[in-house]
Amino acid sequence: xxxxxxxxxxxxxxxxxxxxxxxxxxxxxxxxxxxxxxxxxxxxxxxxxxxxxxxxxxxxxxxxxxxxxxxxxxxxxxxxxxxxxxxxxxxxxxxxxxxxxxxxxxxxxxxxxxxxxxxxxxxxxxxxxxxxxxxxxxxxxxxxxxxxxxxxxxxxxxxxxxxxxxxxxxxxxxxxxxxxxxxxxxxxxxxxxxxxxxxxxxxxxxxxxxxxxxxxxxxxxxxxxxxxxxxxxxxxxxxxxxxxxxx
Length: 247
What we know:
Blueprint lengths: L2 E4 L10 H9 L2 E4 L3 E5 L2 H5 L10 E4 L2 H13 L9 E4 L2 H6 L11 E3 L9 H5 L6 E6 L5 H7 L5 E11 L12 E4 L2 H10 L9 E5 L1 H9 L6 E3 L7 H11 L4
Parallel strand pairs: 1-2, 1-9, 4-5, 4-7, 5-6, 7-8, 9-10, 10-11
Antiparallel strand pairs: 3-8
Helix pairs in contact: 1-9, 7-8
């Protein structure tokens, strides 16, 4: 069986790009994080001198980011206004917001193919929007830089940090591909499997920091996003499976 480890939580909905690829290519995706996410406390967050109410829109690239945003707002006794807009990397993240707010299409926007670049037309229709992006302590600036290239200024707000988690030594690691999204995830992979070498398994990486971390351990990604050809990681994985997967 061709098993692929996705080091992120499982999508909330059964209909997603991963299930589509399972049916198309006969592969299996397992969703398991290689890191533990610890939220910053209020005192740590306030050192950034950021007031969430100074912004009219929030960018969310994971469900964890949504959890941390609303947690900190609650702990700081901030009532998120009904006028706040949310720009989400995927439909599943947008749907997840129903835990915190009434879902309305006029205030929640999402990308169909896991790329904030898809949301540029919506953002351009709101030239006065002020954007805050929830990020981890060791975040990549790829999305922020991409949006800056389109004259959209985004303020990163660190609300949580990633801590490597170890793989149980008694548990098999029988994957043909692993997909990593952060440099901390790469560190966790290396800590658990220090003998992993290029060519042992296929590796997919999202973000320049993730790619740099892999190369720091002598590992070259077989799959990389975002790129002009593959703005989202799922499209890059699809291309790899279509053209390179062993039969």
